[in-house]
Amino acid sequence: MEDAGFIIGGYVLTFITVSFMSWRVLRAGKRLGKQVPDADKYWL
Amino acid sequence: MTTTDPTLSPTGPVGDRRSSGAGTGTRGTRIIGIATIVAMGWLVAFGLGFSPEDRDQRESVRLLYVHVPTIWIAYLAFIVTAIASVMYFFGKKKSLGWDRLAGASAEIGTAFVAVTLVIGAMWGRLTWGVFWQWDARLTTTALLFVTYIGYLAVRRLGGTHEQRARRSAVIGMLAVLEIPLVHWSVRLWRSLHQEATVLGTDGDVSMDGLMLFSLFIGVIAFSLLYVWLVMHRTRVMAMEDLLDDRDLDEALAARHAEAEPVVAAGNEEGTA
Amino acid sequence: MNTLQIARLVAAKDLRIEWNSRVFVNQVLPFAGVTMVIFAFALDADSVLQRVAPGLVWLATLFSLLVLVQRAFAVETADGALDALRVAGVDPRAIYLGKAAALGVQLLVLEAVLLFAAVVLYGQTIPAGGWVLLVTTLISATCGLAAVGTLYGGLAAGFTGRETLLPLLTFPAVAPVLIGATRAVEAALGTAGAVVSDGWPWVGLLAVFAVAFGVGGALAFGPLIDE
Q: How far is CA A27 from the centre of its chain?
């Protein structure tokens, strides 16, 4: 595949971004989840 | 007085204050999360592998399977922000849940636009030879990005949650006014510049069946990702708001506690 | 007292403050003039300057808009004047229209001065047939700029760390005005082969923009400044 560098690089960049966003939101969820009583968590 | 009877949940004066340490995950998010990963896997397989190269764009068309879904989902995200802003602003109850949805959706939409612009620049480099062109679509997308950066900045101005919600709702609704105006003016502007072959950034090329399918997979994958991210982010924001309120309550309570002995002493002296 | 009367009072107040303090004449106009001069330093060639002169006029206007808006709201927040007006029950739409009108007047003066500067510094000429288009452009663009500036100025005013929010919110919002006003002035001046008739669609866009933000701004101003 020609231009493979750009194309694969584009996909990699996207997945790094997406993974980073996901990791950040999950980590915040865990951290705050320890401090907030379960009764206040409307999703449980 | 404690009991080990599992059918009774111990409650204090303000309800059960224990935390199991549970995060924002639920069965729903786990299902959507797994579906997202599967869809992303398919996107990579088809986007990078099974789909053919394009007649004109050759391999660079593969970037469109990411570039196009991200901008479409970003638009969806901003529409959700606008609707949630309306629901908050004109609703009787002024439920902050709408505000948090508006904010979370805007954050994710903005991030997706950033991805759109970067991937689009790479596509442009391969197709046009330049990272950027001032064509109508790219220009509008760049302005869209900056507009919502402004929205996110307004959310961070501080104050009470209600103030944040009110300001953001207004800015969110104004953005819906701004975007069409920007779009028309930029379109009219760039149409003066007679672009001969405007290869539209969403691939105005006749799409082979497999290419269309890859694009479709991309849309599904990023839609699922959007939903998953919004669910988690709104829950995190709910917890942040709760903790803010709790800190505020505790600070107020501490302030009252400081004041009381002085008041009591003053009363004693007054009645002596 | 109806809204328009209150708006007129607010506008007159703002303009009187400006007239008495002379900030507009002593600081804002010179700032705009200096901007026009340093454009010439950056854009070395005369031919380039002549070609982009209309754009430079509007760029200088936009930069000065930021200064004018911050000034317009600095007088309000200095002694809590705006809050006092609101607490007294003054209709925020009237405040908005009044402040926008005062801002618009200052902008018009500024733009006229900048056009004159462009004639002198960038070798521009205004053909006889272009005057109507030129004046109409100035008025419609100014209405749009004043509407957006007053709206976001209200939000960005007062607290430290908020002033830098003003350009971030304002510039994307006034992009259509920058595009339309520049094209229309190019048509009025005959820049790069444009003819006057080319400019009128842009004036139409500017008018739509002014109405949209005028109405939207008047409605949004109250909720935005109520803290």
A: 9
Over residues B77-95, the pLDDT tens digits come to 999 999 999 999 999 999 9
Measured in whole angstroms, the distance separating CA C170 from the mean position of its chain's CA atoms is 11
Sheet strands (E) in chain C: none
Q: Are A38 and B22 in contact (CB under 8 A)?
A: yes
Distance CA B135, CA C147 (A): 28
- Residue B60, CA distances (Å) to B56, B176, B217 in order: 9, 32, 17
CA gap C131, C129 in Å, rounded: 6
Query: Quick one: tokens of B221?
Result: 């994958």
Residue predicted with more confidence, C74 or A17: A17
Tell me which residue of B180, B203, B50 sits closest to B119, measured CA to CA. Answer: B203
Of the candidates B228, B216, B205, B206, the residue with the CA atom closest to the CA atom of residue B68 = B216
Nearest to B72 by CA among B192, B218, B254: B218
A37 touches chain B (CB under 8 A): yes
Domain locations in chain B? Answer: 28-194+203-245
CB contact (8 A) between residue B177 and residue C216: yes
DSSP state of B12: B
Q: Specify which residues B80 forms β-bridges with.
A: none
Closest by Cβ to C172, choosing from B147, B159, B170: B147
* Residues from chain A contacting residue B243 (CB–CB below 8 Å): 32, 35-36
- The predicted model scores a pTM of 0.89
Q: Is the CB of residue B100 less than 8 Å from the CB of residue B238?
A: yes
Q: Chain A residues with CB inside 8 Å of B68's CB?
A: none
**Rounded-to-integer distance, Cα C138 and Cα B207, Å:** 47
Query: Hey, what amino acid is at B215?
Result: L
pLDDT recorded at residue B198:
38
Q: Within the 31-90 window of chain B, which residues sit less than 8 Å (CB to CB) from chain A?
A: 40, 44, 47-48, 53, 58-60, 62-63, 66, 70
Q: Is the distance from CB of B217 to CB of B46 less than 8 angstroms? A: yes
Tokens of B129: 């030879």
Q: Which two tokens stand for residue B154?
A: 């307004």
Residue of A7, A23, A26, A30 to mutate, testing the B interface (most B Cβ within 10 Å of its Cβ): A7
Q: Which residues contact C162 (CB under 8 A, 6 or more apart)?
A: B157, C155, C156
Nearest CA of chain B to the CA of C182: how many Å? 11
Q: Which helix (H) or strand (E) holds B145?
A: helix B136-155
